[in-house]
Amino acid sequence: MILPKIAVRSLRRAYILIPSRQLSSSPTCDSVQKLGVIGAGQMGLGIALVAAQKAGVPVTLVDSSQASIDKSLKFADKILEKDVSKDRISKDDVVAIRERLNPTTSMDDLSNVDFVIEAVPEIPDLKTTIFSRLAHICPSHAILATNTSSISITKIAAATTNDPTDLSAPSRVISTHFMNPVPIQKGVEIITGLQTSQQTIDIAIDFCKRMGKIPSRSADSPGFLANRILMPYINEAVICLETGVGTKEDIDSIMKNGTNVPMGPLTLADFIGIDTCLAIMNVLYQETGDSKYRPAVLLRKMVDAGWLGKKTRKGFYDY
Question: Sign of torsion, CA 73 78 79 84?
Answer without folding.
Answer: positive
